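Translate structure to sequence.
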C-alpha cells in the first residue's frame, strides 16, 4: 500500500510499532486491511472493536474511528491489488463486505477514491 500511495505523489511513512494506524499518508492516518475474494466475487473484512494481542494472551479495544482517518481495504488477486476501497473511518463497521463488480455495493463511491489525499504535486 505504501508503494501505491507513493505512486500517487504523496509522502508515506510507516507508523511506529504499537501505533494505532499502519501508515501516515501526509498527515492522514491510514489503517490497511487485506481481503481476498470469496465465491461470488465479494470480499469481507472483520474489524472487531475488541482484538486479541499477539498469541491471544489478552484482549484490547480498538477504536477504528479514533485511531485512523482512512480505512484502506485492499482486495488481492494472488499477490496483485485488484480492488481498493478507501473509506473514511466514520464508515467503520465490525464487518465490511464489498462487491467490486456490483453497482449496488454501498461502498462503491469509495472504490479508488483519492479525494482525501493530501495535496502535493507529483514529480514530473
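Result:
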Amino acid at each position: 500500500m505504501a508503494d501505491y500511495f507513493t505512486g500517487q505523489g504523496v509522502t508515506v511513512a510507516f507508523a511506529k510499532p504499537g501505533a494505532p494506524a499502519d501508515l501516515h499518508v501526509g498527515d492522514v492516518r491510514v489503517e490497511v486491511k487485506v481481503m481476498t475474494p470469496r465465491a461470488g466475487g465479494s470480499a469481507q473484512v472483520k474489524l472487531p472493536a475488541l482484538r486479541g494481542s499477539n498469541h491471544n494472551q489478552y484482549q484490547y479495544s480498538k477504536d477504528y474511528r479514533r485511531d485512523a482517518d482512512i480505512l484502506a481495504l485492499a482486495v488481492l488477486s494472488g499477490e496483485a491489488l485488484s480492488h481498493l476501497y478507501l473509506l473514511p473511518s466514520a464508515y467503520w463497521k465490525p464487518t465490511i463486505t464489498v462487491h467490486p463488480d456490483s453497482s449496488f455495493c454501498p461502498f462503491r463511491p469509495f472504490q479508488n477514491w483519492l479525494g482525501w489525499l493530501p495535496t502535493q504535486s507529483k514529480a514530473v
